[in-house]
Each structure stands twice: as C-alpha cells, then as structure tokens.
Design brief:
The chain is built from 3 helices and 7 strands, in the order ββββαβββαα. It has about 130 residues and is of the alpha+beta class.
C-alpha cells in the first residue's frame, strides 16, 4: 500500500482551534486540520508553513509536534505529523476548503472529522482543558 506523508496544523487562538471542511474529493465536506503533502527536500515544519500560506494565505509559527498519526485508508496509508501552530499574520482566506470554523473544546464533536483527524481530537480536548 502506498504511503502518503502529510502535515497538519492545529492552529490555536486562546481556547479555540481552527478546522476546515474539505472542498473536494472522496471526503468532501468532512472536517480536518489544514495542511498538505511534504515535498522532497522539505522538513515537516517547512511543508506546513508553505501549505498554510498556499491554502489560507496566512503565515504561521509551528510549535511542538502533537502526534504522528498512522492511518490506513482504503487505497493508501497516511502518515500525518500534527503540530501546534499559531497565526503570525494573515486573514485565513479559504482557497481550497469549502468552510472553516473556530472550535472550542466543547464544540470539537460538532463536526464530522476525517477518520485520521478524529484520532487527534481527545489529545486536543485534553490540552485545551489544561488551559
């Protein structure tokens, strides 16, 4: 099975995190943390900064790795490095996603997450609870 390596930004603003709904493909309308594929020669952090600039026209600071999620979709294996991030500058303009929301820990279950992203939700809820 083919492995696809991607990165995801858990963008935090106070007690809220930013989520987007896919605008295309098999999982259109399901929610995820923004990010994308790592290109040859990039570190995960570089890839994340580039992807967020391309998808949301926003500059971010990448902090600690939350977790690397390994998930088997029907046609590929996903390896996703998920990082805590904060906005440095920009307006979070949706260029690829069909929708976006800021979610508090109480609202994390209010959207239909992609299967791989869903496994991260409890860690995020726990981190938001500590604050």
């Amino acid at each position: 099975m083919k492995t696809i390596r991607v990165v995801a930004a858990v963008i935090k603003d106070g007690n809220r995190i930013f989520a987007t709904a896919r605008g295309y493909g098999d999982f259109k309308g399901q929610w995820e943390f923004p990010g994308g594929k790592i290109e040859d020669g990039e570190t995960p952090q570089q890839a994340l900064k580039r992807e967020i600039k391309e998808e949301l026209d926003t500059d971010i600071e990448v902090f600690d790795l939350i977790e690397t999620i390994e998930y088997d979709y029907p046609t590929f294996h996903l390896s996703m490095d998920c990082f805590w991030c904060e906005i440095l500058s920009g307006e979070l303009i949706l260029k690829e996603a069909e929708a976006a929301r800021w979610l508090t820990k109480e609202e994390l279950d209010s959207v239909q997450w992609l299967p791989a992203d869903l496994s991260l939700i409890e860690k995020i809820r726990a981190a938001l609870t500590k604050e």
